[in-house]
Specification:
The protein is mostly helical. It has 2 helices and no strands.
Amino acid sequence: MSDTPVKQQNTGAFYGQAVASFAVALGAVVGGIVYLDASGWVRAFLAVGVLYLTTSAFTLAKVIRDRQEAGQLVSRVDQARLEKILAEHDPFTKL
C-alpha cells in the first residue's frame, strides 16, 4: 500500500473569496490614492509602490509554491526508488 499524499483542491467558494478579497483590497487602496489630498507626484509614487508590492507578492507566492512542489517531486522519486529496491530484494538468498 502506497502512502501517496492526496492533492488538495480548493473549493470554488474559497477561490471566489480570495479573488473578491484581493479585488476589494486593491480597489480600496486605489480609491484611497485617487482621493488623497496630495499632489499628482505623491499619488503616482504611491500607485507605483502598490503595483510593485502587488507583483512582488504574486512572485513570492509562486516561488514558495514551486519550491514546495519540487520538494514533493523529489520525495516521490525517492519513494519510488525505495519501493523498487524493496520489491526486488529477496531476504532468503545467500550473499
